[in-house]
Amino acid sequence: MMPLMALREAALPAFCLLSGGLGAIAGSFLGVVAERVPQAVRGEEGAENLLFPGSHCAACDHSLAWWENIPLLSWCLLRGRCRCCKTAIPARLLLMEGLSALFFATTAAFAPSPLALGGLWLLWCGLLPLAVIDLRWLLLPDCLTQPLLWAGLLYHAALPQPALTDALYGAVAGYLSLWLVYWTFRLLTGREGLGYGDFKLLAALGAWCSWQALPALVMVASVSGIGAFILFRPGDKRHGHIPFGPCLALAGIIIFIAETFHFTF
Ligand SMILES: [Zn+2]
């Protein structure tokens, strides 16, 4: 692992550029995950899996040529439209590629160890599609939240003790705290304030950030949720719901970055 850090010392710009490229490719794949997993979870007819069919235009089914799959660059070459039917390619895909490239490149420059860098990238790859899917479909699929939880526990198993114990308590406490909020709210008002997916996501984030970070995590998520509510005022389409998943995801990545770089609150 150490040669990786030696390579960074020797050629920082090249290392960051390479990491950014990897981030763009990851972001492009995460875009596919965010498009196709909800189809499969909702049991839609003709739902596509992650590998087949290959990338194609959602409007006209035109299969993409190899160069149309190059993240970011193809968007510029095609000016954001399908080459055949000229339908606009969703801007969220470009945003996912761009943000991932930026995140990978920046963290590559500053991460304290290869393990920390791997953890940051893995958590990003779990949270980004979850945030996008919840934003669009009010859905946090188990097939994404559960592997994220296991990955968080495994990450801490590689760290010196008591990291794994803290992560385990974090997962349990994360789940239980929102479960309690859900049932209290439901018994008092008769309405559902949260979804089960939110408990599972907070369990995963508890595993990644440890139990000590949970109060800060929930506070950052709530503040960003209230901020989003005031800014965007969800319309009737969402029955006044603001999906909480993206707020949790944002809080999770902020807290994990802070922990990795040893910022103290
Ligand atoms: Zn098309």
TrEMBL record:
<keyword id="KW-0378">Hydrolase</keyword>
<feature type="domain" description="Prepilin peptidase A24 N-terminal">
    <location>
        <begin position="22"/>
        <end position="108"/>
    </location>
</feature>
<comment type="similarity">
    <text>Belongs to the peptidase A24 family.</text>
</comment>
<dbReference type="InterPro" id="IPR014032">
    <property type="entry name" value="Peptidase_A24A_bac"/>
</dbReference>
<keyword id="KW-1003">Cell membrane</keyword>
<dbReference type="Pfam" id="PF06750">
    <property type="entry name" value="A24_N_bact"/>
</dbReference>
<feature type="transmembrane region" description="Helical">
    <location>
        <begin position="205"/>
        <end position="232"/>
    </location>
</feature>
<dbReference type="InterPro" id="IPR010627">
    <property type="entry name" value="Prepilin_pept_A24_N"/>
</dbReference>
<feature type="transmembrane region" description="Helical">
    <location>
        <begin position="167"/>
        <end position="185"/>
    </location>
</feature>
<keyword id="KW-0645">Protease</keyword>
<keyword id="KW-0511">Multifunctional enzyme</keyword>
<keyword id="KW-0472">Membrane</keyword>
<keyword id="KW-0808">Transferase</keyword>
<feature type="transmembrane region" description="Helical">
    <location>
        <begin position="244"/>
        <end position="263"/>
    </location>
</feature>
<feature type="transmembrane region" description="Helical">
    <location>
        <begin position="12"/>
        <end position="34"/>
    </location>
</feature>
<dbReference type="InterPro" id="IPR050882">
    <property type="entry name" value="Prepilin_peptidase/N-MTase"/>
</dbReference>
<comment type="function">
    <text>Plays an essential role in type IV pili and type II pseudopili formation by proteolytically removing the leader sequence from substrate proteins and subsequently monomethylating the alpha-amino group of the newly exposed N-terminal phenylalanine.</text>
</comment>
<keyword id="KW-1133">Transmembrane helix</keyword>
<keyword id="KW-0812">Transmembrane</keyword>
<protein>
    <recommendedName>
        <fullName>Prepilin leader peptidase/N-methyltransferase</fullName>
        <ecNumber>2.1.1.-</ecNumber>
        <ecNumber>3.4.23.43</ecNumber>
    </recommendedName>
</protein>
<dbReference type="InterPro" id="IPR000045">
    <property type="entry name" value="Prepilin_IV_endopep_pep"/>
</dbReference>
<feature type="domain" description="Prepilin type IV endopeptidase peptidase">
    <location>
        <begin position="122"/>
        <end position="227"/>
    </location>
</feature>
<dbReference type="GO" id="GO:0016787">
    <property type="term" value="F:hydrolase activity"/>
</dbReference>
<keyword id="KW-0997">Cell inner membrane</keyword>
<dbReference type="Pfam" id="PF01478">
    <property type="entry name" value="Peptidase_A24"/>
</dbReference>
<keyword id="KW-0489">Methyltransferase</keyword>
